[in-house]
Amino acid sequence: MYDLIVVGGGPAGLAAACSAWEKGLKQILIIERDKELGGILNQCIHNGFGLHRFKEELTGPEYAGRFIDMLRDTGVQVMLDTMVLEINRDHQVHVISAANGYQVLEARSIVLAMGCRERTRGAIGIPGDRPAGVFTAGSAQRYLNMEGYMVGKRVVILGSGDIGLIMARRLTLEGAQVLACVELMPYSGGLMRNIVQCLEDWGIPLYLSHTITDIVAKDGRVSHVTVHKLDDNRQPIPGTNLEFDCDTVLLSVGLIPENELTRAAGIEMDPRTNGAVVYENMETSIPGIFACGNVVHVHDLVDYVSAESERAGAAAAAYVSGTAPEGGTIDIRNGADVSYTVPQRLRPGNVPKAADIFFRVRRVFKDSVIEVSADGAPLVTYKREHMAPGEMEHILLPRKLLDTVDASEITVTAKEA
């Protein structure tokens, strides 16, 4: 019997395990399906990680290495090259591996830290041929950075998420010609710093409100694509077609939390995030099962993943020690121009000094305010100079404020100033 089993050995799982160890748990197991710890960070060889957490700029492997070094100073056990098949509300974890076969492990608490996966061509239905040369941006990143394979020489990128933007620069550095980055929405889905450093600095054009309408193959490989400008209903405008002769298409069209295990366990899900509904301490609807990182909602910075996961690990330790949350529950709703909130529920009695609330807006804002209200009455507002869908927003709700709320729910709304 383990005190805690952490499913996933990426940045979220590592931070959760280290935090739980610091809080007193000693029988901790991390289960990772890959052959080494680190998760997606192992293929993210660019810098920009750790500015918040470590106050310095690190590459992805360096950031993961910091937590792996911290883990070595603990007694946390690690099970690599092992697939989790099922978890249940009795805290049983079914796993399989070549080394140990099929096992059923039991734990007093579980942290889900499986991360997320990329949306594929089949999920978005691009018309045209089905040739070689179409990759998700993340798979191309792994081929190039870890396996040493160049995926193409003339590249068009669909979608302007951060992975796609970073791969535009990476491929250019390796000698490929990135012809264009094409974005369905009228704004980019990535961080502003990546738009500047990965596209503008390299002269790579970004076509907003455009999409690929046809992929054409020759001899089984991509030979060219057709791109159209879109109207307000996201329909192609006749006569606006652009033709690109290319051999490769990268898809950077969104990330999806990896939640098959979560759903199968019967944990309540949030259709807005495609992740579990969680409380202020990252506990799910099943007591003793916690979730953190990109399996809950897709983050823009790994620093925030680590902070959230440390909170989940500490909460798992509190659960095992018998510390129960106190008081009633307040639901957090998303108002106008806010797409979701995490956590979705708060227990004010379990909030130390303030509750961290994360969310994303639906459109680009300049001078604006974030308004938190209860029963239509404003509780507090926060000023912002800029907000965009590609950047996660964060506010703190003080415990003193929450104690004054006499309502079953509060709403977070974004407004022009």
Itemize the secondary structure elements and their pairings.
Elements: E1 2-7, H1 11-22, E2 28-31, E3 47-49, E4 58-59, H2 60-72, E5 77-79, E6 82-87, E7 92-97, E8 101-112, E9 116-118, H3 121-124, E10 134-136, H4 137-147, E11 154-158, H5 162-173, E12 177-183, H6 192-198, E13 206-208, E14 210-218, E15 221-229, E16 242-245, E17 248-251, E18 255-257, H7 260-264, E19 269-270, E20 275-276, E21 289-291, H8 302-320, E22 330-334, E23 338-342, E24 345-346, E25 354-361, E26 368-374, E27 377-384, E28 393-398, H9 399-402, E29 409-416
Helix pairs in contact: 1-2, 1-8, 4-5, 5-6
Determine the CATH superfamily of the largest domain.
FAD/NAD(P)-binding domain
The average pLDDT score comes to 95
* Overall number of domains: 3
Q: Sum up the overall morphology in one term.
A: globular
- Rg of Cα set: 22 Å
Low-confidence stretches: none
Helix fraction by DSSP (H/I, runs of at least 4): 10-25%
Tell me the strand percentage band. 35-45%
Distance between the termini: 54 Å
CATH architecture of the largest domain: 3-Layer(bba) Sandwich
Number of strands: 29
CATH class of the largest domain: Alpha Beta
The DSSP helix count reads 9
**Helix/strand structural class:** alpha/beta
CATH topological fold name of the largest domain: FAD/NAD(P)-binding domain
Main sheet makeup: 7 strands, mixed
